[in-house]
Amino acid sequence: MSLGLLSLGAVALDALFGEPKGWHPLVAFGKLANRLERRFNPDGGGWRSHGVSAWVLAVLPLTLAAWLLSQLPYVGWLVGVLALYAAIGLRSLNEHAEPVAEALGAGDLERARQRVGYMVSRDTRALDEPAVARAATESVLENGSDAVFAALFWFAVAGAPGVVLYRLSNTLDAMWGYRNERFERFGWAAARIDDVLNYIPARLVALTYALLGKTATALRCWRRQAPQWDSPNAGPVMAAGAGALGVALGGPAIYHGELHERPVLGEGPAARAEDIGRAMDLVRQGVLLWLAVLIIGGWLLA
């Protein structure tokens, strides 16, 4: 069975059922990662070599297991579909974004702040309506790249082991990749590996957003604004996405009690509640485009 059809099957499972209920493999993986971090980084004293060792122990055995299972006759294709289904989070992204837009539309700013707090790591307690809309729109664009498109990319490149390697690496970056006293050294490997794995997918996502929105504006914002962003992969994605939507994102935000003066991304008015849904539509349309490319490409190469 072609990678395109397998990818379509995984996306369909996600649309029908969302994230696995009751028990999610990434939850179990997170517990393993916490144990490894306590072992290799006690009291924040781990060095880069300890972070590399912990990353290897967390990721490579499970990636090898995914490869072995994917080689099984008759059921190897099912392993791939289930691995991708567990890795993507398109429906979950919408389930987090939609309540924010609904709360803003109803004028319930306090609930909107609470709901957007589930999506972002910044302090949301004092955000006004435009800031909430901006935070949610940014999260949709960035997490669409991390949680959906990059998983599809690595599945297309390397099947089940590719998507397992990517998703576990991305999870470790979210857990260990902080630039603070505890994780500055230990989390260095997790952060850099995630940057490498996301480098090509992020730029394909930026191009996808540009093609499906205001193309010229998106490309201009990508070229001019992305280099100013502190993340080498989030910059292109969010600048192109903001340009494609014709809205302004970025700007100051408070993280862990510290004010970060972030550059402005995109062009146009400040993001509003309806722009959260527009961002989700952009992600969905991009997924359909990628699936079409994978299916048609597989058919032409067959």
From TrEMBL:
Pathway info: Cofactor biosynthesis; adenosylcobalamin biosynthesis
Native source organism of the sequence: Metapseudomonas resinovorans NBRC 106553
Listed name of the protein: Cobalamin biosynthesis protein CobD
Pfam families, per database record: CobD_Cbib
Keyword tags: Cell membrane, Cobalamin biosynthesis, Ligase, Membrane, Transmembrane, Transmembrane helix
Record's keyword annotation contains Ligase: yes
GO MF term (any one): ABC-type vitamin B12 transporter activity
Organism ancestry: Bacteria, Pseudomonadati, Pseudomonadota, Gammaproteobacteria, Pseudomonadales
UniProt xrefs under InterPro entries: Cobalamin_biosynth_CobD/CbiB (IPR004485)
Primary site of residence: membrane
One record GO biological process: cobalamin biosynthetic process
Transmembrane region(s): 52-69, 74-93, 147-166, 282-301
The keyword Nucleotide-binding is annotated on this UniProt entry: no
Membrane topology according to the record: Multi-pass membrane protein
Subcellular location field: Cell membrane
Gene Ontology CC: plasma membrane
Role, per record: Converts cobyric acid to cobinamide by the addition of aminopropanol on the F carboxylic group.
